[in-house]
Design a protein that fits this description.
Ig-like_fold, 6 domains, disordered N terminus, single chain, Immunoglobulin-like, 5-stranded antiparallel β-sheet, 747 residues, flat, Ig_sub, disulfide bond, Tyrosine-protein phosphatase 69D
Amino acid sequence: MLAKGSRILNLFQYYTFLTYIFNYKDVVSLSVDVSLESKPHAGSNISLMCKTESLSNTKWWVFGDENVTATDRISFDRGESDYYSYLRLNISHLTFDHQGKYTCFAAEGEDIATGSLAFNVTVPGKVVSTSNAHANVTSPASLSCTLEGYPLTNVSWERANVTFVGDDEQEKFNFTVGKLSETKLETSLEFPKLKPRDNGSYLCQAIGVDGPVVGVANLYVLDVPHIYIDVVKVVGARRIFLNWTLNDGNEPVQEYFVKTFANGSNEWTFYPEKIPGGNTSYIIQNLQPNTEYKIKLMAKNAIGRGIEQDTPDFYKTFDKDSDFTPEVSLKAITPNAINIGWSSPPKELTDHVHYYILLMYNNSTKKETVQSANQSNLYMFRDLHSATNYKFKVAACSEYTHQCGSWSKEIDGTTMDGVAGAPENLTVVCKYDTISRSSFIVITWEPPSQPNGVIIHYNVVLEGSSVFLGDKGVWEKNTIRPLIKSVDKNSTRSVRFDLLPANTNYSVKVSGVTRIRGAGKDAEAVCTMPPTIPDKEKLNQANWSAVKDQDRWLMKLSIPRVSERNGPICCYRVFVIKLEPNQTVNDLPPPEETKVSSYQEVHMSPKGGTYIADMFESNALSNDIYLGDNVTLSEATRNSKCKVCVGLRPSPPTTPPAPPTSPTNGGGNSSGAPIIPAEIPSLMLETPRAKRDDVLTSTLKTTGVTVPSVAVSTPPTPTVYDGLLDINSNYSGFIEVIVLGGNDSVA
């Protein structure tokens, strides 16, 4: 062991770079550069590098006076680059035997150069262990630390977390330092006679190779407990509250002892109740009302009893116990919050009310919160349900007694109506009535699961839009202005919109309106109204007339373009009827009951008949169409959805079409032509009777009937042929309009 206050010899690490040039011809042609590539910590691996700019030379390492040779811990690396060659000395698991001076020799011809370096092996500093001490006051004690490292210098002790000011000079500690090994030392701090102020933490420290090394040792001075009374408060007619600060002397307090002294008496009275050692406050009970008292308090631990602490003044108990009960009132109400307020205690009790307990509840909810008496006597309960009743009450509490007074009288509060949730099970159905021949929408719904109040009525908003090909051949968009209906809460929760346009996409919004008069969240749904045939007024604009072309008579048909607002038109089909002799238009059956044959069958039969002369889609419509010109219009549709135009079905032909048996007279211009029977330009005027459920058809000058459209199987392809007219016969005809039905079915 070293003498007290001594220091370990300062050991130091050094790196030296030396270069010696030996040139027997006084010509410098060779130099050596040496370096250490890592810190020489004990147990680590290091490398010593030797470089020369010359590539053709011999190198070797010398340690002390001997050449360094390879062993199980020593190896060499040789190499070269474009600018230098090197010899690296590698030492693994470094020990103190490896420290010292190393020299690299390089020889080239008669030239010899050397480079040297020296190092000490170091050990990073660390704390191996510390020992704490527990000892009674006035007894001796010691603390110790074991440190490891090399080198370790400036060993010292100091008090942790203590600042010395002025005459209170920093304590000079008596400590010893002993060397345990080359890399370990132990230092001890001695206390001949402990004082209470010696209690605390101490730092043992030294300077290591990488900086300070610091350990912490704790000294626990065991002493009797010391008490400091902080608060004395009268809290009733028979109770006084005590609060104190404790220094337990590093031993748990076993119990407290209390004595009381009534003003006018002759002696102190021992308080009989046992006060647990874990307390730092207590309420002395069973005192006399309206009486002045002094109090003594003492604590005991394993070391012994501490010094009694007494109150310098008398404290007078109340005449009677007082209880403050707040009065609660509603301050503000919203759909989701209620603000309450309560009265303050009287002045003489203000110091005894430290916080309030607030309670809100109903059959499904209960919430309790605490409000400090230092804050305002207001509190807002948030996140409540709309249109819901809640009850509220408040109690005043004391930090001294950890008790609360009586609950206030409960009050009721009901939140306002809020915004209603979205109605549920909303259904929207677009329908076409075959009897009234009109479109309508039926809307039904159920009340919202969260009405958030009392719903007084429902708002129903209907909007629609349609994109279609107009009568000018240009695409148009039609938007239906919002239609709004209000439905009373006591109704069947359904509504109907009548006389709506066909071929329209409709959207519906339904919302509940509560007593705050604000619309709730929308429930939304959509439906599409099926298409139907064009309006009657549009169809009645077609015109028939007889014209003569050179030596033949033709029927000229003028069809203005019809708006497709009611539905996309797939195609037009022109039917020609050859009347029997003495037959009039009034004798003809309705178009939908007409048997359709081929052109040849009609003109070979003396009874006449009906055939398809021309067929074309909407995009191919021209202003004038000539019938009987022996030119057939039968353009294939370009719309894949209209690949088959379903309507009146002709009888399958038995033979190819042929010219009429009674050809039209040839001749000059129209002024010299024979008179065409008046029936030739006739047009069916009756309203057709719909019999097939899979068609949407119309003859010109009709109001048309829309029948629910369904998918149909592909019918036989009709024979379309516009042959020459028989000048000896009377003709009539009609036009069929084929509309694309719902779900892209052709009808």
